[in-house]
Amino acid sequence: MTPLWKTDSPAVAGMPLEAGRRHDVVIVGAGLTGLATALELVRAGMDVAIVERGGIGELASGSNTGKISLLQGTTLSSLRRHHPASLVQAYVEANRDGFEWVTSAADELGVATTERTAYTHAAGADGVAAVTEEYRAAREAGLDVRLADADELAAGPVRMTSAVALDRQRAIDPMSLLTALAGAFVAAGGRLHLHTAVSRVRVLPRARVDTDAGPLFADRVVLATGTPILDRGLSFAKVSGMRSACVSFDLEGAVPGGMYLSADSPTRSVRTVSAADGPAGRPQLIVGGAGHPVGRADSERAMLDELVAWARETFPIGAETHRWSAQDYTSHNLVPFIGAMPRSLGRVRFATGYAKWGLTNAPAAALRIASELRGEKSREKPTWMTVIGTRLTVPADLARGAVENAKVGAVAARGWADALTRSTPVPRPAEGAGTVARSHGLPVGVSTVGGETRAVSAVCPHLGGVLEWNDLECTWDCPLHASRFAPDGARLEGPASTGLRRLG
C-alpha cells in the first residue's frame, strides 16, 4: 500500500528534538498544511518547529492524486444549495489563493507541474443534472468554467454525456512538492522533528506539546493533523472521516491528459501521470474511487477489486504498479474549519475538513493561520478569510450534523451488540484477516498479519467505539470518528491520542 509518489521519493532527514526547548510556534504535522504554515512563519522571522509522528507527507498529503484544481467535483453546487452566493465565492477565492501559493511555491522550488483541463463529467441523467448545477454555481462564484462540446465529450477517456470543464489547472507529484517545502523550511532556519509522536497538547499554564522525546514549549501551537488531536470544541463531531483508494497502472495506449472526476455514483477519478508531473519512468494511469466512511465498509478489499476491474474494462492499461488509500474529513457544513481552537485561550490553531481537496485548501488554511499568528489586521487580510471565519450555521448544516451523529450512535450500538455475541477464544484468523470477539465482557480484536497473530483491545480509546477490521490495509478502524490503528495497536491517525491496549 505504498503510493506511486513515494516510490523514489528522497528521504528527508529531521533533527533531534531538544526536550524543553521553547519556540514561537510548534506545528504538529508535516503534511501540506503544516509545511506551508511553517514556511510562511519562518520566512517572517519566527522560530518554528515541526513535530511529525512519521515522515514527510505520511498521510493524505502524500497519498492523493496530485490534482491542483479549482473545479472540485460537485463541491460548489453542494455548497450553494444551502448557503449564500457570498460564501461560495469566498470558498473559491480561498482556493484560488491556495492554488496560487502552491503553484508559485512549486515554480520557486523547481518542482515540475503540467497544465491540465479539469472535468466534472456525467454519464447518466442524474449526473447530467449535477454537472449543470455545478456549472451554474461555478460561474456565479467567478470561475471561468465552460460546458464541454460534443467533440470534447466524445474524446474523453470514459463515457461522458455532459461535462463542465476548467482550463489551466495543474497536475503535480505531491511528494516532490512536500520534500521541497521541507527543505526550504529547514534552509530558512526551521527545526524539523520527524518520527516523533505527540501524546498530548496542553494550553495551561503555557502552550506545551508533549512528545515521546520530551516536551516542547511555544507561544502558539498549530495542529495540522487532518483532524485535531486535541478535543476542544468537539471538532471530531463536526466532521466525517472518509477513506478512498487509488490504483496506478502502466499505460499501454492513449488516454487524454485531462483530470477527470465523475458526478455520477460511484465516484471515479482519472488522470495520467507523465515524467513531468510524477516519478520518472514509464507513463502511468491513476484511477481513484472506493470512497466510504471510515470503518463502515463490509470489505475495503472488495471495493478496491471492483475499482480495478472497472479500470481494466475501461482503459488501455497493463500491469498494476501501486495501490494506496488516504483519509480526509468533510465538515457537516461543507466548509473547512480553520482558525483558533475553542477554549484554547487563542494559543492553538487548527484546520480540518478539506473534503479531499487539500492541495488548494491546505495552503489557503496556511495563509489564514499564518496571517493570524503574524498579527495582521482584518483590513490587511483578503475578504475570504473574514467571510469563511464568520460563516453562519444554517438549518441544512444542523440537519446534516444530526443525521451523521445519529449514524454514529447507531454504529456504536451495533458494534457493541455484535462484539458481545462471539466469545474468545476464536479460531486463528487467516493471513490478513481480523475478527472482534468478547473477552471478560469487552471487545477484543484478533488479527494475523505477516504470520503473527495479535490480540488488542477493540475499543477505541477516543470515545469507546468498537473497531472494525480493514481487510485492505490490515488496520483497526473506528466507525465513529475515524481513528485508525495498526495490528499491534499503534495509533495511525484520527482524533485518538493513544494506541490500543495490547493483549497478546
UniProtKB/TrEMBL annotation:
Q: Which organism is it from?
A: Microbacterium thalli
Name of the molecule in the record? FAD-dependent oxidoreductase
* Taxonomic superkingdom: Bacteria
| Residues of the Rieske domain | 423-504
Q: Which InterPro entries does the record cross-reference, listed alphabetically?
A: FAD-dep_OxRdtase (IPR006076), FAD/NAD-bd_sf (IPR036188), Rieske_2Fe-2S (IPR017941), Rieske_2Fe-2S_sf (IPR036922)
- Keywords for the protein's UniProt record, in alphabetical order: 2Fe-2S, Iron, Iron-sulfur, Metal-binding
Q: What Pfam families does the database record attribute to this sequence?
A: DAO, Rieske
